[in-house]
Amino acid sequence: MDSNSRGKEGREEPEAELGCCGYVLTGVSIFILIIFFPFSLICSLKIVQEYERAVIFRLGRVLSGGAKGPGLFFLMPCVDTCRCVDMRTFSYDIPPQEILSRDSVTVAVDAVIYARIFDATLSIICIENAQSSTRLLAASTLRNVLGTKSLSDILTDRERIASQMQVLSSPFLGKNQYFMSFWHGDIENAHRMGIDPQISTLHILDEGTHPWGVNIERVEMKDVRLPVQMQRAMAAEAEATRDARAKVILAEGEMKASRSLKEAADIMSQSPAAMQIRYLQTLHAISAENNSTIILCLSTSCRLRQKQGLGEAIADRLFRRLPLEK
Questions:
Q1: DSSP at 109
Q2: What pLDDT shows up at residue 202?
Q3: Are 41 and 241 in contact (CB under 8 A)?
Q4: Is the dihedral of CA 250, 256, 259, 264 positive or negative?
Q5: 301 and 279 in contact (C-beta within 8 Å)?
Q6: What is the mean pLDDT of residues 44-69?
Q7: How many domains does the chain have?
Q8: pLDDT on residue 204
Q9: Percentage above 90 pLDDT, the chain
Q10: Which of 39, 90, 96, 325 gives the lowest tally of CB atoms within 10 Å of its CB?
Q11: In Å, how far from its chain's centre is CA 64?
Q12: pLDDT recorded at residue 209
């Protein structure tokens, strides 16, 4: 259902008769118009801009056909009065609202609303100031909606909360039982009525501003301010969480490094040559520095292996040089 059809439904009433006095005054107005023609055209012609609509009252009653415009139209002097309505989207800043969240945390939230008048006639005859009333209703709805959310939801789900407050055409408009079940927190009744509780506040503003001819196009939360003590507590909690995560990562890294060292030690223990190569690599790394004196501490097993290897080499050379006895 579009905005125009909704506006027509809101003002479907039979046009009241003007009565005898009305017809007499209309005739007098036409007579004056003819007598003072063409000077009377100055007061009788009205130009309405493209973004405006004119609501014409004849003897206090709205003319049939709704708002006029844009363009040029005719007014009867002394009988017709005209009020122009701006149909463009207007915006209002909602002042900071002190809200108590579901988990008993006081926050200050300010927002901005974007609205548009879709029916000029309803905005004139149904309410004194449609724009001011829309702003007050949006502030009240913002408090009611955020009062059902926890602090974490308010901080992390701003877009979803804003989308819930936006006005969209819906087949559920007019289901007052649904809104009563929502405000009382009865989600089971909402399920029973076939309505998703995730869109519980989607049409609250539309339900309130529809009789005024106002359409809420967008609601945006600009800022959420927490008390100073709560900010410090959240900062301490975030710092503790980061420290704990860093310790866990460090412990996991040490565990993986220990496993790798254990596997390397197991492999090298099975091959003495690998140990010697590793030993030589260490000596090479030490000698790469600018050191004038290098002290080597050889283990007993290493010295024994070196002596054994030296003895075998000497014996081998002697065996090769000495001639065999006949």
A1: E
A2: 41
A3: no
A4: negative
A5: no
A6: 85
A7: 3
A8: 62
A9: 2
A10: 325
A11: 43
A12: 80
